[in-house]
Design a protein that fits this description.
By secondary structure, this protein is an alpha/beta fold. 33% of the residues lie in helices and 22% in strands. A hairpin with a 6-residue loop joins strand 21 and strand 22. The two termini are 46 Å apart.
């Protein structure tokens, strides 16, 4: 059928799509999912993606035509377009914002009508060496005879022939010029002489930027009895449910079960998406997966540059089982890849907060969005966790998800011994050494004496959370945000972790002029400094955002720890998840109070999960590990539950509290954030919207109020929280919210207002 119009998604934060006419010369070639160049506004040229073809003329005087087809093939398939539409509708954002998050920016060249549009992606090419033509054996012998007087040239040719195994009539294989010159010990002049003689040539060929993992495939390990039981339980549940939760204690061997499930799907010709919450985890897991699945395995995360992302995108879209990726290991953004035939989605550590995207839009939750993606492919979803989210476990209770359990560690290694160290008592008795209790120091000393390794967890980076004047209490704050500046000793700077502003360490108090400024609290950098003083012979490493900024820094730190070049590793949350170290026997949690006292309805659930996850890194192979939790409140109910590894009691307590106070999973939540450069204007517009919504939703509205951090990058912030009962229509509620915001945007002076909507903001 010939279509006259195309609805096109453009990479702009404007609701809906834009309709353009299809010129006759393109009418036979256009398809949904193709990239096109269109004019937008007076001068701007954008790349967009066709989402719909039709013959319904829009109610416009002038309909602009598509300028150019950027591709001859679709870069997004129909399931992707449906997935983008769902994310846009559910998370109340534009499809352009979804496309911006989904598609590598190198796919979207821009320009204006006075300049040419230049593609951002360019294939990487290298010079290769080939024979000038197909030579017979006789001709090659004659050539080698003539080259006896030029032994370097003869050696170069022989090296090429040996490398390619060339015989008469066989295919001429290209060999990288750089590697052949190195292997033969020749110079470029030697090769150039052979070109002049008509014996060899050079050709420029496209080479990938991505690492391939080879095809040496190890057989799968035999599952233990408990793993096999869980595997069978998952398979049986998949016969009745599309989503199954695997609840397995730390180090129970969940990954091996995943590997067996992946093998089944690949044999069926299906693709598999294996999701992890942190880039750091991909390093260890990819080594395990490549042993079994080789070159069909791809990795996707934010540390790849735009050129590499394009190549990964193309490999996922490639349906050829020899050249395309069939198994993708990725973080939250991997849900946007162009899968053609998903059979299974695995979401490991499904409880982890890193799956939630907070800024910018789309503010999606990758776990929930991946479940929808799997449904569009009619695929199965497996959620895995040692401490599942309350929402997911609740879905097994109400029958929405299936449940499989792994209750013992692999090889029946005991769960770690957990010791609670009372910091309040230790400070009172003057037993603390820096920030370390006697219990922790004894455990570290004992482990180092046995050549075992230690992890120390502190969920705050930097040297000190803030600097204070002891005379008057003055604290340096960010000039753009309502937060204290954090001191980083390594670079001797005060930094804001919200906007990136930095300043030098002040020499005197900005209020009273006192020069006796002191640091308060402690972060990973300070722990690193002080543990070196206590254990000067130990080799100490640190893993946080400051030490993992470069592309391969994760890999380097993890490899050093695996190969026992680091004795004590200090880190933030990224060391708590899924890492598996054979020689790690002691884990220290330095400030549990910091986790437990966070002002959030999920604070206790997340504290339990985080402490349980960190604890699970200890003693995974040879012997029972030891975990020391430092806290000023040893009687805290969450810490008592962690001591018993009692997830079910934590779930029951949290469920009862949330049912009482109407929090998820017993309601849905939507948070609206309003930002303005002027505080009085923000208050004015927030009150208008708040009153409008209260008229629609009544007591379901909380706020407007200033959040804990009330200013970021000079923008004042106010939030409105909406709680909607599960039995109410969320679609109707979202329509009412959209209409209320539209009314506010028409108010005089509202042009300086920024509004962000966050659905499921937890």
């Amino acid at each position: 059928m010939i279509y006259s119009f195309a609805d096109i998604i453009l990479p702009v934060a404007v609701k809906g799509s834009f309709t353009y006419s299809i010129p006759d010369e393109f009418s036979d070639d256009v398809k949904p999912g193709m990239r096109v160049l269109v004019r937008f506004g007076n001068r701007k040229i954008y790349s967009g993606i066709i989402c719909k073809l039709h013959n319904v003329a829009p109610d416009l005087k002038n309909i602009r035509p598509i300028m150019e087809l950027a591709d001859t093939v679709q870069i997004a398939n129909e399931r992707q377009l449906a997935h983008w539409r769902w994310i846009s509708d559910y998370y109340l954002c534009s499809r352009g914002e979804v496309m911006n998050a989904a598609v590598p920016s190198a796919f979207f060249p821009e320009g204006d009508i006075s300049t040419s549009v230049i593609e951002k992606y360019s294939p990487r090419e290298e010079m290769f060496i080939v024979l000038a033509k197909e030579f017979t054996d006789k001709e090659l012998n004659e050539i080698l005879d003539k080259l006896k007087k030029a032994p370097k040239q003869a050696e170069f040719l022989i090296t090429y022939l040996d490398r390619t195994g060339y015989t008469r009539g066989s295919e001429i294989f290209p060999v990288r010029k750089s590697s052949l010159l190195k292997e033969s010990g020749s110079s470029p002049e030697v090769f150039n002489a052979l070109v002049k003689k008509g014996i060899m040539n050079s050709v420029s060929l496209e080479v990938g930027r991505l690492k391939d993992y080879g095809n040496n495939k190890e057989p799968l390990k035999i599952l233990s009895e408990s793993q096999q039981t869980a595997f069978n339980s998952i398979k049986n549940s998949f016969n009745k449910k599309d989503i199954v939760l695997l609840h397995g204690v730390t180090s129970s061997g969940k990954t091996e079960i995943y590997i067996h499930l992946i093998e089944e799907q690949l044999k069926l010709g299906k693709q598999v998406l294996y999701m992890l919450p942190e880039i750091a985890l991909t390093t260890q897991i990819i080594l395990r997966l490549q042993k079994h699945f080789g070159a069909v395995t791809g990795v996707y995360h934010s540390r790849f540059n735009d050129q590499e992302k394009v190549e990964i995108w193309k490999r996922v879209a490639d349906e050829d089982p020899e050249t395309g990726y069939r198994l993708i290991l990725g973080v939250r953004s991997s849900i946007f890849l162009p899968f053609s035939d998903l059979g299974l989605v695995i979401i490991d550590e499904e409880h982890d907060g890193s799956y939630k995207q907070h800024d910018p839009a789309p503010r999606y939750h990758a776990r929930d969005s991946a479940i929808i993606l799997a449904a569009l492919h009619k695929a199965k979803t497996l959620l895995g966790s040692a401490s599942p989210s309350v929402e997911s476990y609740n879905n097994t209770i109400n029958g929405k998800y299936g449940l499989a359990e792994l209750k013992e560690r692999y090889s029946q290694i005991k769960l770690p011994e957990i010791i609670v160290a009372n910091t309040r008592e230790a400070y009172r008795k003057k037993l603390m050494v820096s920030h370390f209790t006697p219990e922790l120091l004894h455990a570290v000393d004992e482990a180092l004496g046995k050549n075992e390794q230690v992890v120390l967890f502190q969920n705050r980076r930097g040297f000190s959370p803030y600097v204070e004047c002891p005379e008057c209490g003055w604290i340096p704050v960010c000039i753009q945000c309502a937060v204290n500046l954090t001191y980083h000793k390594g670079i001797n700077k005060m930094m804001c972790h919200y906007c990136g502003y930095s300043s030098g360490m002040p020499h005197a108090c900005g209020n009273c002029g006192s020069t006796g400024l002191v640091t308060r609290g402690f972060g990973t950098e300070k722990i690193e400094d002080e543990i070196k003083i206590v254990f000067p012979a130990a080799r100490v490493g640190r893993m946080d955002q400051d030490t993992t900024r470069s592309k391969n820094s994760f890999n380097r730190i993890i490899r050093d720890f695996e190969e026992q070049r680091i004795d004590i590793l200090i880190g933030t949350q990224m060391i708590s998840k899924g890492l598996d170290f054979e020689n790690l026997t002691v884990v220290g949690i330095l400030n549990a109070d910091n986790l437990l006292n966070y002002p959030d309805f999920r604070a206790h659930e997340r504290s339990f999960q985080l402490i349980e996850q960190v604890s699970g890194r200890a003693g995974r192979r040879k012997k029972q590990g030891k975990v020391i939790i430092q806290t000023s409140d040893p009687g805290n109910k969450i810490i008592r539950l962690v001591l018993r590894h009692d997830y079910l009691s934590m779930f029951r307590i949290q469920s009862e509290e949330r049912a009482t106070f109407n929090y998820p999973p017993f309601c849905r939540m939507i948070r609206i954030s309003l930002k303005h450069k002027e505080r009085s204007s923000l208050n004015h517009f927030a009150d208008i919207l708040g009153n409008d919504l209260k008229g629609l939703f009544g007591k379901r509205i909380l706020g407007p109020e200033f959040p804990v951090i009330s200013q970021i990058q000079l923008w004042y912030i106010k939030t409105i929280l909406i709680k909607i009962e599960r039995e109410r229509s969320i679609v109707r509620a979202k329509d009412m919210i959209r209409d209320a915001i539209s009314r506010l945007e028409k108010e005089k002076g509202a042009g300086g207002l920024k509004i962000a909507i966050d659905v499921d903001p937890y």
